[in-house]
Every structure is written in C-alpha cells, then in structure tokens.
Amino acid sequence: MITASALGSFALIVGLLTLTPGLDTALVLRTAALGRRRRAWGVVLGIQTGTLAWGVLSSAGLTAVLTASHLAYETIRWAGAAYLVWMGSRILLSTLRRRAGADPGQAEAEAGTAPANGPEADAGDGFGSGWRQGALTNLLNPKVGAFYMAVLPQFIPAGSAHLLTGTLLAGVHILLGLLWSGVLIACARALRVRLQRPSARRILDRISGTVIAGFGVHLALAD
C-alpha cells in the first residue's frame, strides 16, 4: 500500500503542476469570464476526465506504447497541435469579425463563444460542449501521457495493485485540479462585469486565442 510520505510527495508534484499557468488555466478562465458557468465546469470536468484516463492507462502500462512508439506519439501530437491551433484561430477570428462590424451573435456562435444571455445561450453555455473541449484538449496532449508514464510508476509500491494505486494517485491530481479550477472560476466571475465589456472582451479573446494557438504551435514544434 502507498505510504503517506509517497502520497504527499506525489500531491506536491502534481499540485505545483496544477498551479503552473498553462493551457488548462487559459481555457477555464476565459470560459468562466464570459459568464458561462455551466460550460466552464464542463471544461474543468472534461480536463479531469482526461487526467483520469491518462492515470488509468499509465497504471495499466498502456502508455508505455505511447512512449515507445514514435508513430503513436507523433499521431497524437499532431492531432493535438492541429486542434489547439484551430481552436485558438477561431477565437482570434471572432474578434476580427466583431471589430469589422459583423453580427456579434453570428461571430460568437461560429467561435463557440456565444454569450450566456443571448439566443445562443443554450449552445454556448452547454455543459456537454465544454466537457468535450476539455477532454479533447487533455487527451490530445501526449505530454500529459508521457508525464504520467514517467512519474506515476515511481509512486506505486512494489507488490501493490498497480491499477488501483495508480487510479488513487490520479484521483489526488483530479481533486487538486478541481479545487484550483473552483478558485479560478470564482475569480473570473468576480471580474465578469468588467471582462464582458466589448474592449475587455476583445483583449481577453486575443490573449486567450494567442495562448491556445501558441500551445498548439509549441506542441507541433516540440522535440
């Protein structure tokens, strides 16, 4: 059985990883800042679903295929890079269309950023669409799988049930992620009125779109 010391060390590692600003933080903050609370929690739970999947696969030894197979790694890497660049580009394109005087509802609907109180509220604030976005973002990032493959086995004691222990450790990561995401959503909602002003909205979308697309480019160019 895993010791308290090992559990604490693992929690420290994944806790620092969770607190480090990155793609997950950008997605959650932007979604919550637009006033779309259901979708924001969908994104959060989608990300944590991906984390659980990587933890289970690593515990079962299946991610060894990812790290050992160049083709498998490259396939997931390029799919993830394309998805992130596509997502970021849509957000940036929506800001250009709004600036050019295009119909705001149409531009936001095409970018998946319809306001929560508009005619597209049900689609724009959907929990399911947020969950799919979060899950795809996590599952299409092979670096998460490589991280779990490198770190998780070190904290699974010899002779213990690998799948059970690995899932427990992934649960610790998920719990920390949920707590931190709750803080991010609360902060974003506190600033929601200011962030929903047209000028602030454009700045937020440009930053978010650039960050998300930048992660995609970085993933594509990474060794």
Sheet with the most strands, sense and barrel status? none
Write down how many β-strands occur, each being a DSSP E stretch of 2 or more residues. 0
Through-space gap between termini = 37 Å
Count every helix, treating DSSP H or I runs of 4 or more residues as helices: 12
Q: Give the H and E element order.
A: HHHHHHHHHHHH
Give the helix level as a range of percent.
over 70%
Please summarize what this structure is.
The chain is mostly helical and 223 residues long. 80% of the residues lie in helices and 0% in strands.
Short descriptors:
223 residues; mainly alpha
Describe the structure.
- The structure is a single chain.
- The protein contains twelve helices and no strands.
- By secondary structure, it is mostly helical.
- It has one domain (about 5-220).
- The longest helix is centred in the middle third of the chain and has 30 residues, at about 70-100.
- Residues about 100-125 have low confidence and may be disordered.
